Amino acid sequence: MLAIDVHQLRKEFKVQKNREGLKGALKDLFKREHTEVAAVKDISFQIPQGEICGYIGENGAGKSTTIKMLTGILVPTSGKLVVNGYIPYKDREKFVQGIGVVFGQRSQLWWDIGVIESFRLLRKVYRVSDEDFRRRLDELVETLQLQELLNRPVRKLSLGQRMRCELVAALLHNPSILFLDEPTIGLDIVVKMEIREFLKRLNREQGTTILLTTHDLQDIEALCSRVIMLDDGSIIYDGGLEELKTRWGKGREVQFQFTDPVSLDDVTFMTSGLDVRWSLENEVTAKVWIPREMNVSEVLSKVVGLKDISDIKIFETNTDEIVREIYQSGSADAPRDLSALSSNEAEAGEKEPIKAGTGAGES
Ligand SMILES: Nc1ncnc2c1ncn2[C@@H]1O[C@H](COP(=O)(O)OP(=O)(O)OP(=O)(O)O)[C@@H](O)[C@H]1O
């Protein structure tokens, strides 16, 4: 079953226009003019149950607006959406029982009361039985190590402590879908890693579907097999993270540290016949750039044996760079190069843009 099913979803906001000058301001007092801003432009995607999907894009791309529609906070201008079998903005009461939401920038806990009191209030909001509440709370408190924090008021918690409590608050009613909007924003690396581990475990053990909005691509790398990329309200990529790296990554670099000094001619000679590029870092260190369609082992087998090597490092394509490049170009199907495809794909003449919904979880 699909956890999230979105077709041609659109959201327009009415924005007030401010006319220039004193005259304009006076006119605005009597008659306001408005323009329509399309924040989300007819997007479609499906997320199967149990998938962790990253939802990324630059500031103002439309991520939060989408999440707000998916969680029933905003009513779409047009299009269809079904989440967990419900239309979020219509079936609110039943719908919220099955979802959990964490907005990294906003708290759902009461600021001045003890954390445990907030949890008790949320138990009533979600109508969780006493027994289920106790069992679930014990589990979550233990996993996230919150024992010491339960009686402290939220305002006295550090950001990392608060975020762990926010996760508990969002999961007390055991939702099958979790929406996370920037859950690791402002956290230090240790807490980020703890939260990522917790989310992985939640997904693995309970099959919770997770839609994750983040600017931190390490979150995506750690958690998501699939990524949906938004640009100016439209989806420009929907597919596997590995696929994105393979198609956009321009190759890999391997650094060799040799025992004895080498020249550029020496190293180039070792791989003659291969379409690679060498550069010298210093007299014993050389780097070779290998195009993405070539196997690294092909190059290694030529070099190892001819020269004594003291160290080898392989530099993989960096997701940050790939994503930045795609944002800048506004399209994810530009560098498509048939030579990069497997022979089967090339023979079949597969030409679909990467934008097509080919998430890993759909296979
Ligand atoms: N209530 C609103 N009224 C008018 N315009 C809005 C409103 N909410 C969002 N927008 C506009 O819609 C566009 C998308 O905003 P949204 O907050 O969804 O982007 P985002 O991808 O979440 O950005 P960020 O990463 O900065 O949070 C922006 O141009 C924003 O100014």
UniProtKB/TrEMBL annotation:
Instruction: Return the annotated region ranges for Disordered.
Output: 331-363
List the Gene Ontology MF annotations in alphabetical order. ATP binding
Keywords of this protein's UniProt record, alphabetized? ATP-binding, Nucleotide-binding, Transport
Q: Which residues form the ABC transporter domain?
A: 24-257
Q: Does the keyword Cell inner membrane apply?
A: no
Q: Return the Pfam families for the record.
A: ABC_tran
- What is this protein's name? ABC transporter ATP-binding protein
